[in-house]
Amino acid sequence: MNNDLINLEYRGIPASNGISIGNVYIIKKSAPNLINKAIIPEKIDSEILKFENALTQLIFETNEVLEKVANENDNVTSIIESSGLILNDPYLKANIIKTIKECLSAEASIVRQIEFQKQYFINSKDAILRERAYDLDNIKGRLIEIIRNKSVYKSLPDDCIVISSSITPAEIVKYKEKKIKALITEIGGLASHACILARSFEIPAIIGVKAACKNFINGEEIIADCFSGTIYKNLELTLKRYYINEISHLIEHKKKLGELVQIEAKTIDGRRIKLKANIDALSEIAITVQNGAEGFGLVRSESILLNKNRLPKEEEQYKWYKEIADRAFPFEATIRVFDFGSDKFSLGLSKAEDNPALGLRGIRLLLSRPDVFEIQLRAILRASSHKNIKLLLPMITNLNELLSSKEVIKNVMKDLDEKNIDYDKNIQIGVMIETPSSVLIAKSLAKNCDFFSIGTNDLTQYVLAADRNNEFVSDIYDAMNYSVLKMIKMTIKAAKKQGIPVSICGELAGHSAATELLVGMGIDELSLVNSALLETKKKILSLNYEKAKLDSKRFLIEKLQIND
Ligand code: PEP
Ligand code: MG
Questions:
Q1: Is 141 exposed, middle or buried (0-12, 13-18, 19+ CB in 10 A)?
Q2: 505 tagged catalytic
Q3: 195 annotated active-site
Q4: Atom of ligand 1 nearest to the CA of 507
Q5: pLDDT surpasses 60 at 306
Q6: Residue 455 CB–ligand 1 contact under 6 Å
């Protein structure tokens, strides 16, 4: 082998810690809207068959869902029914087949025809027809997913390192099932939900690796050092040996951290910091409990719905929340109501918007859909009889949203009372502090809620005007930026003044570089990704609170001009 070609290095942004040695599996994706793939005439029949099979499967899935939601409220059934109508539209089907016959692939024909029809809906003056544009988007995505599932996920070998242009949260769930060794993507942001899930599932990951799909070939052995964000190919034996050794050290290190499970997170001079876990999937509960989490500080309820194709009924939701409360007991579980919208999975409830992160997401969406909100609240409240559930409201930007949400909660409680259904009448209601406006009105929010949870992932994106999913601004998107830290301090101050507890549940809670500062600033609780729990505990055990307080005070005066 030519020496120049040994240990070729590629770099990206480390997104989920770990080191993996494995064989590459490339998943090439073209953005559905850009597909323009011509096929040879001999392939027309097989492409038509591909499309027809996907359509049959989707009609079957939709009918199945329709049967299940038969007793749901009209809104839910009408969403599913409207998808059924589109799928059974002979005009759309005929047009897609016609396009395939013009030598375009099944995927490209689906995109072309659905986009064409979508424009008609989008431009319509009728609001109901405009709504159907979103149904079309879902149908397009799902048809392509069915077609790709057959060729991509089913043939995905266990233990491979996946290289893909991009990644969605739903794909991460599939990769977890396939036990992939690591994930490398060309685009994405560190605080994207896909990356959060990768860390939750402990799948080592590197993002933002330019032209990754071109620079690697299927089956070749590579090393992904997801601590430094370096990928090596054309491996030299010495390098491979070095990394095999590093992997054994990591296993040893993890074992050592395991000894901290039973120890309380306390600084040397006795300041207790509650260490809780963020939960994105029910399957994560066991490992967080094993790792000694003192309850769940953020249950992202919308993430539990990943891979569901319909909004679950109250009964089904009740069972999840009950399981979460039971498993957390005697600790608490903070269940955040659905934060649908933006880059998150939304079951088609959110609209196609030009700026979704600034659009109808979180509490805004829930308040516009009281049917969805009330069902979830009923399910959570019914599960609260152990009195260890707390309710958390996402994306609050004004006091009215908090007061309106409390009004909806009060009404649901009234209904439960009338039916003699047991629940925690004093359930605590907290606000996610994740927008600059919520920080600026923190005083009045604090007067009207029971606790704060700072969502640094969104707070960073909104304070710095840098999309959390966009690798082009990843250098600007920095949760340790002084403006973000100043906002955190302002929130802690407002909470302390009102005497309510404040926690951090964004990814910053698990950054060891931030622990001392956050503890010194007076944070009461950190809720973090499972994989960072023990490492953070180790850090807290090494701190002196009085010193951390003094250091942070100095930092606040010098760098943030906060003098308190
Ligand atoms: C956050 O924004 O910091 C947060 C914890 O919520 P999410 O990442 O789910 O938006
Ligand atoms: Mg958020």
A1: middle
A2: yes
A3: no
A4: 3
A5: yes
A6: yes
- Interaxial angle between packed helices 482-498 and 456-464, expressed in degrees from 0 to 180 and rounded to the nearest 10: 130
Segments of the chain assigned to CATH 3.20.20.60? 260-560
Q: Which atom of ligand 1 is nearest to the CA of 461?
A: 2
469 lines ligand 1 (CB under 6 A): no
Distance in Å, CA 196 to ligand 1 centroid: 9
Task: Please tell me the distance from the alpha carbon of residue 82 to that of residue 334, in angstroms, as a whole number.
Answer: 35
- Quote the percentage of the chain above a pLDDT of 90: 65
CATH 1.10.274.10 location in the chain: 31-151
To test the pocket of ligand 1, the residue of 199, 433, 434 to mutate (highest count of ligand atoms within 8 Å of its CB) is 434
Give, rounded to a whole angstrom, the gap between the first and last alpha carbons of the chain.
64
107 lines ligand 1 (CB under 6 A): no
- pLDDT, tens digit, 9 for 90 and up, residues 160-172: 999 998 877 767 8
Query: Which ligand number lies closest to the CA of residue 280?
Result: 1
**Whole-number mean pLDDT of the chain?**
88
Pocket test for ligand 1, best of 195, 197, 300 (most atoms within 8 A of CB): 300
Q: Which CATH architecture has domain 1-29+154-258?
A: 3-Layer(bba) Sandwich (3.50)
pLDDT at site 158: 79
pLDDT at 125 over 90: no
Residue 1 has pLDDT above 50, yes or no: no
Q: Is the CB of 310 under 6 A from ligand 1?
A: no
Whole-prediction pTM value?
Answer: 0.74
The helix (run of H) or strand (run of E) holding residue 167 is none
Q: Place 139 in a pLDDT band, splitting at 50, 70 and 90.
A: confident
Q: Whose CA is nearest to atom 6 of ligand 1?
A: 455
Measured distance CA(106)–CA(51) in Å, rounded? 6
**CATH number 1.10.274.10 is the correct assignment for the domain at 31-151:** yes
Q: Which of 492, 489, 491, 535 lies closest to 511, judged by CA? A: 535
Q: Pick the residue with more confidence: 31 or 433?
A: 433
What pLDDT, in 10s, does the model give residues 66-86?
665 455 444 445 555 666 777
CATH homologous superfamily of 260-560 equals Phosphoenolpyruvate-binding domains (3.20.20.60)
Contacts of 246 (CB under 8 A, 6+ apart): 19
Tell how far CA 327 is from the center of its chain.
22
Q: Is 280 in the pocket of ligand 1 (CB under 6 A)?
A: no
Question: Given this model, what pLDDT does residue 486 score?
Answer: 93
Q: Ligand 1 in contact with 348 (CB < 6 A)? A: no
Q: Beta-carbon neighbour count of residue 284 at 10 Å?
A: 22
Query: What pLDDT does 201 receive?
Result: 86
Average the pLDDT over each of 24-38, 278-292, 376-390, 397-411 and give the range with the smallest value.
24-38
339 CB near ligand 1 (under 6 Å):
yes
Residue 191: pLDDT band by 50, 70, 90 thresholds? confident
Tell how far CA 117 is from the center of its chain: 31
237: CA distance to ligand 2 center in Å? Answer: 44
